[in-house]
Amino acid sequence: MPRERLIDSIILTEKILRVQPNVKKIYLLIRAPDSNSAKHRFNNEDQQTSTTTISSQHITLHVSVLKTDLFRVLREKLVANLHSFIEDKVSLVPGDIACDSLDEMCREVDIIIRYCYKYQCIGSMHVVEFSKQCSKLKMLLHVSTAYVSGEKEGLILEKPLNYGETLNGSSVLDIQVEQRLVEEALKDLQVRHATGKEVTLAMKVLGIERARLHGWPNTYSFTKAMGEMLLGHFKEDLRLIILRPTIILSTYKEPFPGWIEGMRTINTFIVGYRKGKQKVAIGGRDTIADVIPVDMVVNSVIAAIVAHQNPSSHTVVYHISSSRSKQLKLDDFIQIGIDYFKKNPWIDERGKPVKMKKFHLLDSMESLHKYIGIHYMPALKILKWTNSILCQHLQAQYANLERRINDAIRLAELYRPYAFFKGVFDDTNAEMLRMAIRESNADDTLNFDPTTIQWEKYFKETHIPGVVRYIF
C-alpha cells in the first residue's frame, strides 16, 4: 500500500555496497546543524534517520540498520572489516532537505536520488534547486508512487503530471495556495495553544479535505503528486526520471528472500489475522492487488541510472508494477493467507495455537459500520455500562475493545481507495528498460521483471514467513 516509504532506501544502500564495493563515496545527509553534530548523531543515535546520497544518490537511511539482518551478507563477506569499509565509503554531510540550502560538500555529485517522506513539496523544491547547482549532475531520479493516479480506472499510462492539473477537472491546483493554507492553519493552532494531538488531528482533516477537493483520495497521494509537479515544473533542462512503484513487499531474492522492515500496508492485515484479531476488512474480491518486491524496486532504480547516462531534458516515467503481467486478485491473496495460517497457526503466550476465524470481506464502508454495529457495538455498550457500575474496574477491557473498533474503521478508511482500485498500470516504458538491461547482460543483477515471480509460492514461502520473522 502507498503509505509505505515506497522504496526502502536502506536496501538500495546495501545493494550498492554489496555489488559495487568500489563505489567512491556514499554521502549521508543527516539532519544536523554542523559536521560535529552530524557525526555525534551518526555514532550515538540508534534510531535516527538520515538522508543519503550515494555518489550523490539521494535517499533516506536508518543508521541502525547496519546492525540488522539486512546487512548480514555484507557482514559475512567483510567480517571484521565492515566498520572500516563503512568509514571509508561513508561521508557525513549536515543538512536538511526542508531547508533552503544544502551543504557545499554535495555540490560536485553526479546523480541525485531524491527520497522525501515528510516534506513532499518543500523538499522537492529544495532538492531541484540544489540539483541545478551540481556541476556534474546527469539526472534527477525521483521515487514517487503509482498511486499519484488517485482512483483512476482502466489503463493508467506512464506519463508525467502537468503542473497544476487535478484529477477531477473541477478545480485548479495552486500549490502555493495549498502551502499557504497549511501555514495559516498551523499559525492558528499555535495561537490557540493547541496540543500536539489536536494539531495532528487538525492537519489530517485539512489534508484529506484538500486532497479530495482536487480528486485525490488521501493526503499521501496528493502530496506525492504535488512533489512530482514541482520537480517537473522547475527542473528546467535537467533530466528527470520518475519511478512509480505500487505496493512494496519483502525481498524476492536479494540480499536474501523475505527481508522486510516495519508494519505497513497488507502486513497489517497479515499480522492481525494471524493473531486472531483481524477477521474483517473491506474490498472488492476482483480488485487487482498490484504488488512488487522491494529488491525489484531497488533494481529498477539502478537500472534507470545505468540506462539514462546521456544528457537530455526529457522526463521519463516508469511504473514498477505487476498488474499488467499478472493480475493477482485480492480474493486470491486472502485465500493464500488463510491457507498458510491454517498450516502454520500462531502460538499464543500460553503455548496454544490461535484458532483461525472466518474472514469477512465487506463491499463498502457502510457494510463495515453495519457489521460493527451488529457484532461489536452491543458488547461495547454493555461493557461501558458495567464498567461504570463497577467503578471503572473494567476500564482496560472497555478501552481495548473501543480501540479495536476504531482501528478497524481507521484502517478501512485508510486502505479503501486501494481495496477497490480498478486501474491497471501500464508498464511499457518499464518493459523497454528491462529489455535494455537484458541486452547488457545485467538482468541477473538488476532483475525487476514481475513475470519471473510465482506469486503463490512467493507469498507462502517468502513474504508471509518474512512478515512472521521480522515483524512478529
Distance between the termini: 19 Å
Q: What's the Cα radius of gyration?
A: 23 Å
Note poorly predicted spans: 1-7, 45-65, 102-118
Structural class: alpha/beta
Helix content: 40-55%
The profile of the biggest β sheet is: 4 strands, mixed
Name the helix and strand elements from N-terminus to C-terminus, one letter apiece: HEHEEHHEEHEEHHHEEHEEHEHEHHHEHH
Q: Major sheet: order of its strands?
A: 3-2-1-4
Principal-axes geometry comes out as globular
Whole-number mean pLDDT: 82
Number of strands: 14
Function: Catalyzes the reduction of fatty acyl-CoA to fatty alcohols.
Domain Thioester reductase (TE): 11-300
Catalytic activity: a long-chain fatty acyl-CoA + 2 NADPH + 2 H(+) = a long-chain primary fatty alcohol + 2 NADP(+) + CoA
InterPro entries: FAR, FAR_C, FAR_NAD-bd, NAD(P)-bd_dom_sf
Overview of the structural elements:
The protein has 472 residues and is an alpha/beta fold. Helix content is 45%, strand content 13%. The strands form five sheets. It has a four-stranded mixed beta sheet. Strands 5-6-8-12 form a four-stranded parallel beta sheet, with helices on both faces. It has a two-stranded parallel sheet with strand order 7-14. Helix 1 (9-19) crosses helix 10 (294-307). It catalyses: a long-chain fatty acyl-CoA + 2 NADPH + 2 H(+) = a long-chain primary fatty alcohol + 2 NADP(+) + CoA. GO terms for molecular function: alcohol-forming long-chain fatty acyl-CoA reductase activity; alcohol-forming very long-chain fatty acyl-CoA reductase activity. Catalyzes the reduction of fatty acyl-CoA to fatty alcohols. Residues 375-472 form the Fatty acyl-CoA reductase C-terminal domain.
